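Case study 2.
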Amino acid sequence: MDYLKAFLVGGLICALVQILMEKTKLMPGRIMVLLVTTGAVISFFGWYEPFTEFAGAGASVPLLGFGNVLMKGVKEAVDEQGLLGAFAGGFKAGAVGCASALIFGYLASLIFKPKMKK
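Prediction:
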């Protein structure tokens, strides 16, 4: 049942984003920023943890989950360092995800022939 819930919630998020891409003139980069920001806002209000408990990986894997990770890092760093933690916490919490995306993206570009869209 956990797999089904994760698949349905993750699929619903992706379907809503696809509709947003098709029906608006927003560029994909802006939609990505909107998703990360939405995840951070939902996390700020404390609604993301119950959502993740219900949906599992369907809620934690999409970009909403990255916004949640950033916000959790900021909250922890603010508790430890004060105002300075608001700037450092997100970088510390999101560093592993960003670094792996860069490394694996680079390795994929070495293995496959990347081409520009026309």
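DSSP finds six helices and no strands in the chain.
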